[in-house]
Write a structure and sequence with these properties.
Layout (H helix, E strand, L loop, with lengths): L4 H8 L5 E5 L3 H12 L3 E5 L1 H11 L1 H7 L5 E5 L2 E5 L10 E4 L17 H6 L5 E4 L16 E3 L3
Length: 150
């Protein structure tokens, strides 16, 4: 029987102090809740949500956060903070769950690059629930990356 995304992440939460989540939609939100229930800090990156929020909040908010790669959203649980992708490099575990797209302003094809991986912890566990194509072709063989789908 195939393991669920939650079961896969749970295996890595026993020693993790921080989990980076790239994509905070349905799956990302479920993974966030699981990590936070275990007392693990979550670092969130979701550029399209940031852009939507910035647009709704006005030009001054967008100017503050630049290209939408950082920002925040007010939710029922309080202020939800989104970070630039590079900020997730400090996490013990990084989960990637984004749709595959080449469309601007936030293409996901090849978004996990050698430059990003060079900033990640050498012992990081990167779990890719997305298509393999979100990882740049030249680094798809990095031993820290575990592909679950695609």
């Amino acid at each position: 029987m195939e393991k669920t995304a939650e079961e896969i992440l749970a295996e890595h939460l026993t020693t993790a102090k921080a989990v980076g989540l790239v994509g905070v939609g349905k799956l990302g939100t479920r993974l966030r809740e699981l990590a936070e229930k275990k007392g693990v800090k979550t670092l969130l990156c979701d550029p399209p949500r940031n852009l939507d929020e910035a647009t709704e909040l006005g030009e001054s908010f967008f100017n503050l956060w630049g290209n939408g790669m950082g920002g925040c959203e007010l939710t029922g649980a309080g202020l939800e903070t989104f970070l630039p992708l590079d900020s997730l490099a400090v996490a013990d575990v990084i989960c990637i769950q984004v749709p595959l797209t080449a469309e601007k302003p936030f293409p996901t094809v090849g978004m996990i690059t050698a430059a990003f991986l060079s900033k990640c912890r050498p012992d990081a566990c990167i779990i890719c629930f997305s298509s393999r194509e979100v990882v740049a072709e030249d680094v798809r063989g990095d031993s820290r990356i575990h592909y679950i789908a695609g």
